[in-house]
Amino acid sequence: MRRNTILTAIALLLLIGFLAFADNFFDLYLVRILNLCAIYAILGLSMNLINGFTGLFSLGHAGFMAVGAYVTALLTIPPDVKKQIFYMTPIMSPLDVMNLPFPLALLVGGLLTAFVAYLIGAPALKLKGDYLAIATLGFGEIIRVIFTNTQSITNGALGLKGIPNTTNLWWSFGTALFTLVVIASLIRSSYGRALMAIREDEVAAESMGIHLAKHKNLSFIIGAFFAGIGGGLLGNLLGTIDPKMFTFTLTFNILLIIVLGGMGSLSGSVISAFVVTIANEWLRFLDEQINLGFMVIQGKVGTRMVVFSVLLMVVVLFYRNGLMGNRELTWDQLCNSKIWRGLSARKRGTAIAEGGEK
Amino acid sequence: MTFDLFLQHLSNGISLGSLYALIAIGYTMVYGILRLINFAHGDIFMMATYFAFFGIVTFGIPWYITFPVILVLTALLGMTVEATAYRPLRDAPKISILISAIGASFLLENLAIVLFGGVPKPFPTPDVFTDVVKIGTVSIQKLTFYIPVVTVIFLIGLTYLINKTKVGMAMRAVSKDHETARVMGINVNQIISLTFGIGSTLAAVGGIMWGLKFPQISPLMGVIPGMKCFIAAVIGGIGNIKGAVIGGFILGVGEILLVAFLPDLTGYRDAFAFVLLILILLYKPTGIMGEQIAEKV
Amino acid sequence: MALLDMSQVTMRFGGLTAVKDLNLELNSGEIIGLIGPNGAGKTTVFNMITGVYKPTIGTIRFNGKEISGMRPDMITQQGIARTFQNIRLFKELTVLENVLIANHLNIASNFMEAILKLPRYRREEAAMREKSLKLLDRVGLLEHQNDKASSLPYGLQRRLEIARALATEPKLLLLDEPAAGMNPKEAADLTVFIKEIREEFDLTILLIEHHMDVVMTICDRLYVLVYGTMIASGEPAEIQSNQQVIEAYLGVDEDAENQ
How far is the alpha carbon of B175 from chain C, nearest alpha carbon, in Å? Predict the structure, then answer.
């Protein structure tokens, strides 16, 4: 127990040190990718809570993100900038003068998203399996359609520009860590066990006295809350948002993350968020141009998504459990792994190995 | 609104409804046999329109040869999707199959973007279809009449196939129970494959007529119609072919009339179907023609 | 007053009448058998008592309180627990987790307290664990507490399902074919086990069973259901000699007699 606390503290210090270093010395492009990794980790964790742990196949994540992103952006864009970007139809009051500090705006964004999820969940969570999938997908689309048409609130198809770039490494990684801790704590509680019981067998869960609607809603709302916050962080990282950003493709990317990481594994989602986000950037050349040194092949737009679609199918068809299945990466596991044992035995004799067995 | 104008809207609604019906049948047949949404169905429909574009525009093959060939090609495409994305997961958890289906759908869409380009292309429209006839003061494209007629012809064919032939009997058997059907000597995989083939053929018929009616094609054109037609199938009662047709018409006519009577809501046109879906699932989850399926406890 | 009282209960699915005009009474402390050939509607009776189905006509009272129409989880709260014919454990979860989940219905802490691990939640969690471990020890599954439920051998899975039901602290326990698939020795052990838990947990038990040895040994009374209609009820000896039962039931399903 003691050892794990120390290891966690060391890991945290290392992370802080790394972030401080990255914040000062990495170029903007790299910092942006790291920010995206952390944000996708938040999104993956929140979708895994709903889909992987509770077994609700929900495809509404992009919609939730849209709500969070728009609310956060509208609350943080300075009033004079708002006047400029709403040149087609003026922004409705009191939104025009409202302005909140970033963390508060983010929180309001998350809470409003949770409220939207509450409204959606009441009817939609009565549905099961693929009906739920199509209904949540539909809600995601409806939210997008509404945002395109409510000109005086969202600026319609023009989107929002000039969102302050308040998201930095501290915010994104801090929030990701917070999300991880909260969701992990929930999963390991009696409530988390109830959610997993629902995933395993609804009929049996209900006959054990678990109120299905209440617990499904709980999972859906908490998941949506974090999706909203993730959306808010994303909007204030990118600086511009518009309804077209929040299509099903975005949900697809998060789905890929949780399937690749393992439905039902939090550490899997985090690892996979980094893998997918970095791969997404790294594979960018496929859409632009491929330089082979002696010749340059013009890349084609869409190739990257072809790779990702194939990846998703390969994972589901051949490695159904993804990277982690429903296991978690823990200190005990790391310390007991062969690699670590080998290393520690060589470096510091048997001291650590004994400690690992405590 | 004048009566003439109303007639014009109604005829538009009926031809849109026919198209929805044709595509919805594909969803409902696959659902009936596998209890699964074929997420890629809308994209198969999209591919059919590209096949037509290449046949007529690129290779200059006359439409009356191109169109029948496309039906075969699209059927083959549907069967290929089934063999790669669905068949290996026959005994897997439902959630895996759904994810695989979503993967297949994205693959088709993005392959289309890579191979055909993301920019919309004009669909070739032979004059025979687009000529305008005037009835009194109402002018209507000939196509508007052809679409329901073609739809009805294919529906009659399909009904005959399902109810009067051995293959149709096998399909009905498989949709009731895979194991029992297998014991009776039916090659279940073959029947499922065939179901995908037939559904895709109808999607191709719908796709061709869609292209003629809205002559602009793009890689993502199948997404929204795909979702709407799935909804049409649910409204009618999923698994039920008559229901899919009824649902298709309700959705098509409803959508056109909604926009005609309430022009303010034009922007919300695509949301209409989803609102309808939620309502029907809440108040009559089995749809108009569906049967009650009680879960065995 | 009867603990459970079903009066004039009918269940129809579309055109099919699964159970017709059923009257059934259970008194506290009894072990009652519900027998009948396959498809007689026995499991439907269980599903109506536990709220999976709402009876088309008729009322079900438990402890004098009307329960037909309540949600299944509310009925479990009232003190009715069940097992399933085709074992429905939470397969991917451990044996201990399976039992812990059955304790969740009594939790007083809300989810925020659970996430923040506030003192009240910690106390509740500790109490749940202690209770569950004690229960597992009682039913002889303690050594398997960290095994995946699906990895248990068949007989132990049945036992875990009963333990899980007991963890909800029921007054009435419904067992759906608890001896299915067991050999005579296992069935005999189960018979002893059921009698023991009735004493220890102060239970009333209603069980569906095809093993006639089990039924005749432990049941105080029997109800015989054929095609949804109750054709006889009474003590095991009476039922065994009831001509109507022999014709309608044993005559139809000879296997049951041989078992």
Answer: 21
Cβ separation A200–C91 shorter than 8 A? yes
Residues of A with a Cβ under 8 Å from any C Cβ are 182, 185-186, 189-194, 196-197, 200-201, 203-212, 218, 222, 326
How many separate helices (H) and strands (E) can be counted in chain A? 18, 2
Residue C84 included in any domain: no
Residues 6+ apart with CB under 8 A from B69: B51, B55, B61
Q: Is C158 in the same domain as C230?
A: no
Question: All domains of chain B, ordered by start, with CATH?
Answer: 3-283 (1.10.3470)
Per-residue pLDDT of chain B (297 residues; tens, 9 = 90+): 677 888 888 888 998 999 999 999 999 999 888 888 899 999 999 999 999 999 998 888 888 899 999 999 999 999 999 999 999 998 888 888 989 999 999 999 999 999 998 899 999 888 778 788 877 777 778 888 889 999 999 999 999 999 999 999 999 999 888 888 998 889 999 999 999 999 999 999 999 999 999 989 999 999 889 989 999 998 998 888 889 999 999 999 999 988 888 888 887 888 888 888 888 877 887 888 876 554 555
What's the complex ipTM? 0.91
Identify all chain C residues contacting A55, using CB atoms and an 8 Å cutoff: none
First-residue to last-residue Cα distance in chain B: 55
Query: CB A189 to CB C72 under 8 A?
Result: no
CB C163 within 8 A of CB C141: yes
Q: Say whether both C176 and C259 belong to one domain.
A: yes
Same-domain status, C69 and C31:
yes
pTM: 0.90
Q: Among partner residues C13, C43, C84, which is closest to B294 by beta-carbon distance?
A: C13
| Residue that is last in its domain, among C100, C134, C169 | C169
Neighbouring chains to C with at least 3 Cβ pairs closer than 8 Å = A, B
Instruction: Answer with the one of C139, C169, C199 that is the final residue of a domain.
Output: C169
Letter string b/e over residues C166-179, b meaning 16 or more CB atoms within 10 A of that residue's CB: bbbbbbbbbbbbbb
Q: Nearest C-alpha of chain C: how many angstroms from B233?
A: 23
Do A30 and A240 touch, CB atoms closer than 8 A? no
Same domain? C192 vs C254 = yes
Q: Find out whether A48 and A264 touch, Cβ atoms under 8 Å.
A: yes
